[in-house]
Specification:
With 480 residues, the chain is an alpha/beta fold. It has three domains: 69 residues, Orthogonal Bundle (Arc Repressor Mutant, subunit A), CATH 1.10.10; 127 residues, Aspartate Aminotransferase, domain 1 (Alpha-Beta Complex), CATH 3.90.1150.10; 235 residues, Type I PLP-dependent aspartate aminotransferase-like (Major domain) (Aspartate Aminotransferase, domain 2), CATH 3.40.640. The protein has 18 helices and 13 strands. The strands form three sheets. It has an eight-stranded mixed β-sheet with strand order 3-10-9-8-7-4-5-6, with helices on both faces. The chain has a three-stranded antiparallel β-sheet with strand order 11-13-12. It has a two-stranded antiparallel ribbon with strand order 1-2. α7 runs parallel beside α14. It starts with 11 loop residues before the first helix and ends with a helix. About 1% of the residues have low confidence.
């Protein structure tokens, strides 16, 4: 089919990607045609299967390939490409939080999601086999007429409670409330505990959609600096004294956008301060399952006292199921349940039954272990590529989906982000996640997509142009 140059500085996966792309563009693989299997192409080229997987995943992200589970990879059919953008309404303005989230889900054709918060479709393709769907349907009394209790499908809540116990979080089914993903969990917390004018502490940098949701509620947002070890405790205490918030949102493990995981000592002190000042902690653990090994959470340390722990399987297992959950004591869970009934009456019985079957089968744990291994490899590759083009990473974090990089000193963020978008590359800069000047030149990178040769080529060329322009301006200034 083609040959690889093992003396080239270009990684083998990038060489495979380029040459396959050329074949696709030339029409050598017609739409709907099956490509060689991963093992077949790896054997033919004398590379590891993971190298071929990386190349195929990148082409899936570009819209050139379509994964079809165990059937393999196929040249994308025109009907299989993302929806015509002319039929879509944009809910936000370019580069705001809502717009960025919509881009990740609308998936505009040809857009490289270099700053996306999602895993590639191909990585999740086999997470939910059809056999599980059938067993989940068979488990429903009354089939599709089965109603889901507002608190959640009991078999799922029992499985979630068991999973939380293995993480050191003392919980039973009565402590668990299901939700349509972490986004609904955040919405329920805001509905139940935030009134217009209330002060709410958030981490800075932090999850961009959370800040937008709080602003929409009319909350007084109090940003507190987040570092690699956790939230800045001195500033956190000062914020509690000055603003007297009722609620604080904290992301303990694999923080978004930085990838940092808080140290146990920081969490102990944070809980002590929160208890002293009467603050409820909403602990976001959406990406925590992607962190290998056992780690400390606020829910574990507190025994769910004054802590609402929430997470989701949408990002790491299946966006099609839209299943998440909250865990808290009864006093906190009751107003959340009330708001869920107001917002959506109950959950989707079939979705929750599928999730219960997945947890019962042990597939979720095995799937997470595979994701952890693949992300570790992608993380090393992306870090190497991005550092090579000139980005710096003060604290790359311990794992997960994100890298938080800083641009070279002579490169301005806003023009770069706008130019990249015009060239089909989506970048999310520091101001999306932070109000602090120290993050004005930072970018969140998705470790899977950031290793893409298209991104590194663009950044290298763009940095060279901007650096030359800065040097030219400096020479002009010196001659005046």
């Amino acid at each position: 089919m083609f040959a690889l140059d093992r003396d080239s500085p270009l990684p083998l996966a990038a060489q495979i990607e380029r040459q396959l792309l050329a074949l696709l563009q030339q029409g050598r693989f017609a739409p709907g045609m099956r490509l060689p299997s991963i093992r077949q192409l790896a054997a033919q080229l004398g590379v590891s299967p993971n190298t071929v997987v990386i190349a195929y995943d990148r082409l899936v992200g570009e819209g050139w390939l379509e994964p079809r589970g165990t059937a393999g990879y196929f040249a994308a059919l025109p009907a299989g490409r993302p929806a015509d953008e002319a039929t879509l309404i944009e809910a936000g303005v370019e580069q705001d939080a809502v717009w960025l989230v919509q881009q990740a889900n609308d998936q505009p054709a040809g857009l490289l999601q270099a700053s996306s918060g999602s895993l590639p479709t191909a990585w999740l393709q086999d997470a939910v086999p059809r056999s599980v769907l059938q067993r989940a349907f068979d488990a429903l009394p009354g089939g599709m007429a089965a109603r889901c209790p507002p608190q959640g499908w009991l078999p799922l809540r029992e499985r979630l409670a068991s999973m939380l116990c293995t993480q050191g979080i003392a919980a039973d089914a009565g402590c668990v409330l299901t939700a349509s993903g972490a986004t609904q969990a955040i919405d329920l917390i805001c509905r139940a505990f935030v009134q217009r004018g209330d002060a709410v502490v958030i981490e800075d940098p932090g999850y961009h959609l959370l800040r937008a949701r709080l602003a929409d509620s009319g909350a007084r947002i109090v940003p507190v600096l987040r570092g690699p070890e956790g939230i800045d405790l001195a500033r956190f205490e000062a914020a509690l004294v000055e603003h007297q918030p009722r609620l604080a949102f904290i992301q303990t493990r694999l923080h978004n956008p930085t990838g940092w995981t808080a140290a146990p000592g920081n969490l102990y002190r944070l809980l002590s301060l929160a208890e002293r000042h009467g603050v409820v902690i909403a602990e976001d653990d959406v990406y925590g399952q992607l962190l290998p090994g056992s780690t400390t959470t606020l829910a574990q340390l507190s025994g769910l006292s004054r802590v609402i722990h929430y997470s989701s399987f949408c990002k790491v297992l299946s966006p099609a199921l839209r299943v998440g959950y909250l865990a808290a004591d009864a006093a906190l869970l009751q107003p959340l349940l009330r708001q869920k009934i107001f917002a959506s009456l109950s959950g989707a019985t079939l979705n929750e039954s599928v999730m219960a079957e997945l947890l019962a089968s042990g597939r979720v744990r095995k799937h997470m272990e595979r994701l952890q291994q693949r992300l570790a490899a992608a993380r090393q590759a992306s870090l190497r590529v991005l550092q090579d083009v000139g980005l710096s990473f003060e604290s790359p974090g311990q794992g997960g989906l994100f890298l938080w990089g800083r641009l070279p000193a002579d490169v301005e963020l806003e023009p770069l982000v706008k130019d990249a978008r015009q060239r089909g590359i989506l970048l999310a800069g520091g101001p999306v996640f932070s109000v602090l000047d120290e993050h004005a030149s930072s970018i969140r990178f998705n470790v899977v997509h950031a290793q893409h040769v298209r991104l590194s080529r663009y950044l290298r060329e763009r940095f060279e142009v901007l650096s030359a322009a800065q040097r030219s301006l400096a020479r002009i200034a010196r001659t005046r």
